[in-house]
Amino acid sequence: MGRVDLYLGSDLGLWALDQIEGERVGQVLTEDREIVEACQQLGLTVHCGNPNLVEFIPTEVAFSIQFRTILRPPLLSRYRHAFNLHPGYLPWGRGTYPIFWALWEGTPAGATVHEMTDKVDRGAIVRQLRVEYGDADTGFSLFQKVRAAQRQLFLELWPRIAAGDFPPATPQPQGGGTYHSKREFFALKEKADLSTMTAADLVRLARCLSFPGYSGLVVRQGGRQWELSLSERDPAGPPAADA
User: Fold this and answer.
1) Which fold does the domain 4-180 belong to in CATH?
2) Cβ atoms of residues 143 and 113 within 8 Å
3) Closest by alpha carbon to 38, among 82, 6, 2?
4) 98-124, pLDDT tens digit by residue?
5) Phi, psi for 181 (deg, rounded to 5)
6) Which residues pair with residue 6 across a beta bridge?
7) Residue 191 to residues 60, 184, 218, 220, 224: CA-CA distances in angstroms?
8) What are the start and end residues of each CATH 3.40.50.170 domain in the chain?
């Protein structure tokens, strides 16, 4: 039985630590102090910082889960296999904030495990799950659905990958799909041209950007700045006060 280097970030990476046997982990690489502390409690070898700059001896296999720093070609080349758990239904949702873009553009949403290459989010697809959504979904509700799909994929594939039984992968199509940068996201979130948007589009954009704990759609008007976000109202809630 081989060992796998885990590249972990966010609450999903922390969750993954609770699902695995420590003897299957070579080492953990992270930039999250909470994950560092969890690894130390579990007795796992952990390196904190940019893995492209950290000195360590890799195993033959890497599995990245919500790790935000891009692994550069010199590091990837040291692995026989390197996998990534991506919160998008590739080839749609390449780049940053794939859940937002799926909801805003009406493209497929889901989760994908793919091979990592020097071209970000373009490696061959190992397994993926599509997530359905509708007009009632917000950025947060779709995030919850995608996160559930990510957990399902990890639980399904981790035992095989850790045992050295690598599922076959299918190359992504040459054309089609979507890619978006962080700059595009913030341009739409903070600098949307209201003069070209219908009221329906404005509400839809606010819905896509509604996520507890994060700012919503930023609107500038009359020298002032406003923030718009939406939350579902309980139809059984108290009636509005009389005018």
Assistant:
1) Rossmann fold (3.40.50)
2) no
3) 6
4) 999 999 999 999 999 999 999 999 999
5) -95, 165
6) 28, 63
7) 45, 10, 7, 8, 13
8) 4-180
